## 1
Amino acid sequence: TMTGTAELVQMGASAPITMYQKEPNKMRIDVDLSAFAAGLTFTQAFDGTKGWGTNQQTMVIEEMNEAQSKDFSHQAIGNDALLNPQKLGITYALKPKATLEGKDYVVLEQTLADGHKTSIFIDPSTYLPYKTVTTTLDPMSGAIVETESYAGDYRKVGGLMVAHSIRALASGTENMRITISTVTYNTNLDDALFIMK
């Protein structure tokens, strides 16, 4: 479970965010928008089989369609993506190095079992991911867009290095900055947390 603040860049506003991950493939993200409307929370979740969440246009909780659900399921894959990729049919390929801001990065291309690809840029001095590039569905238009995320401010939590700063861009435009304040492990999250009510 990670808690922090999400800066919604294009709205010029910030809101509390909580992200839950449960192995092997459950995920939930809650953005507390009660500052805009009492009791309002924007949720996206994957229960291990299908995705659901808040419709951006109607603000009503509903099941994602098949394409959206498949798209969000990519984010829900847990640590087996790195620890046991063969179990999930995930492969990695070493690509040519890339120079970002005057520094050469190691580039890995991750290919999921369904063919979805993500480029991961590894900092050669720390071996931690700095940037990822992939494609996702735009929730408003349904179009496929290129998304980038930048991870920084790594700190050790429970023996693992965790990014406490994340910047997200879609089609080259920054849309969110997340600052993580707390990270907790193995808190016995109930499966019901990930199921649409």
Note: The chain has a mean pLDDT of 95.
## 2
Amino acid sequence: LQTIFRYLDENSLYPAILAGDLNSQPHDDSINCLRGKFDVFNDSRCDEPTANSSKFGWVQIDYIAAAPQSVVKCEKFFRGSDCTASDHYAVIADLEL
């Protein structure tokens, strides 16, 4: 994450949206680090799992986040309802800049 933060800062690439499988759960240090610079839109649905891990079972590891904080507004965040093609549900957000 520090590499991503530095790249965004050095190249003035804001606003920025980060979305995908981060392989970290909401209480992990990496997600807490992400919260230091990004709004993490999953926080509104933090108890909703997004993937089935063979080690941990159903967990939330897929995220949508934006920086700088308070610039991108999340109108709606939700998890898709179908994971037949993957062991992940899609995470979906309606964002407003």
Note: The beta strands are 16-21, 39-40, 51-53, 57-59, 62-67, 73-79, 91-96.
## 3
Amino acid sequence: MNVLLVYPSYPDTFWSFKHALRFVRTKAAYPPLGLLTVAAMLPAEWAKKVVDLNVEPLSEADLAWADLTFISGMVIQKKSAEEVIGRCRAKGVKVVAGGPLFTHLYQEIQGVDHFVLGEAEEVLPVFLADLGRGEAKPLYRAERHPDLALTPAPLWELINFRNYRSMSVQFSRGCPFDCDFCDVVVLFGHKPRLKTPAQVLAELDSLHRLDWRGNVMLVDDNFIGHKGKTKELLREMVAWQKDHGYPFNFITEASVNMADDPELLSLMAEANFDQVFLGIESPAMDSLKECNKRQNQNRDLLAAVRTIQSYGLEVTGGFIVGFDADPPSIFDDQISFIEQAGIPTAMVGLLSVIPGTRLHERMKREGRLLGLPCGDSIMELGGFNFVPKIGRDKLIAGYKAILSRLYEPRAYYRRVLTFLSRYGLSGEGPKRPRSSLRRQDLAAAVRILWRLGFREGGRRFFWGFLTKVGLTRPAQLRLAMNLAATGYHLRKIARAFVQIEDEPSVA
């Protein structure tokens, strides 16, 4: 059996980092971890090929070779996924589909022969057994959340590492919180399920053995969903990093309550974590109550961000506008918070209503749904899929004002400087590997200097920023350059969105 595992392409959004990746000559931020893990669950005797459309095209030769195509993706990849399915159907290649996109929207997608929905560890073997007997059904759905001890290590040999900026490892699934707009608990449940430290270290060993060095993302829904078990893993990771000379720096997603635990932050710093994504969402407490973001309520969110930054962790933040409880000042409030917090990479989006969530059920009851989400409001205004209380026109105008003000060079570099002034103030921080600049690092720096220092309109702010860092924090120049490259990408996306002409609502 010849099996294609196809990962649809992402549109150009905040999350793609496409424009920043060009500086380092890589094609995508992360590999398709889910498909690589599914590949490890398929019969060993099957021939397998991964085609990630974010790094290479799906060729006619690929389709001619394949007996079966597995496809997985997120809601934002729907358009690309449908194109792949159409091509497979035209060539007579059967399609097996799974992952969040299809779990949510399988009834909306035509041309799939077999849907395998939910987590694959227990349901995929049932499908494979039926397939072997020639009795495969159109729909399979996982009824339980499996033990992650069943999860095999990904088949890394199916991809070319040079195409990616970071590798990915999963420690846990699920989140103990219950934000009403989030589909994590719908897909993976409230109770975090965990791999053993031995499993995680074995995956790190595999990456190290295959000569990967640099970024590794722990792709958990909430890395600290079970703090005690997370600390056990971190202690093992600290020892592993010391033994191997700190070959990796880690990135992850967590909740803001990590700021309450100095031991946790110290362990993350010692294990060489240098970035964490937090779902901050809003500085408006009424909005946080509305969406049941209880982990962010009744706390000083600014102080929490500053505490985390003081341990040498760059906080990247998720923010949302469009809650019913948002005050009229929400657009200025979001800008003020992000600037005071010194969050360079601030992902601000319009509220999106995802099928299966409690927010979706409420909007449906209230007759406020406008269709399906596109997965990312920055992609197109068509992804805006509910009737907001503030009014569509006001919300979109305010959102565009946020993007215009946050990402222009002067404002962005000022936030980076604010962050760098707090970076590592606790005296702790990532244990950086002692390595000299490589040729590709120098080449990337030259490309950044040329594009931002000579070609971009905000070049005088770039040179002022770089000069200030060089004079006051020379040890942070590499980090400053990386953040400058990220800012370039964010500006490109924000400017493109702000220029979109929206049709005024008739309401």
Note: Confidence is low (pLDDT under 50) at residues 503-507.
## 4
Amino acid sequence: EAHVFLGVEGFKTMRRDVLKHANGEHLMLGAISREPIVMPHFWTYFNKERIRLGIKMRTLHQQNTRDKPMRGEMMEMRFLPKDITIPTVINIYGDRVVNLLWKENYPVCFMLINKDISDSYRKYFEILWKISAKQQV
């Protein structure tokens, strides 16, 4: 199953889907910290709901976000090695994988719903997590 969500409202639909289907963990690969800037009120809402539902978030940020990483309760983050750049932010949760492309402040989300695919992406995330630098606070 596949879906495309366009614009800020489409992005919000995807984030609400995270709240429904994350099963306790939401992984983000290639995070660029655009969400808190483009939609700060929704970011606050999403985080409160995520925490209330007990969804832990682990993010692998791109190096160019060292000065503005997303922070929050029940959040752990690391930075990808400098030689790894990803044109999309990959969200992995439940049986879903969402490739998110930011065109300036316009998000485009491509969602795949398939347990085998999400499990495969999760393994890829874990390999990168192990080699990535921990966040210095």
Note: The CA atoms of residues 24 and 34 lie 23 Å apart.
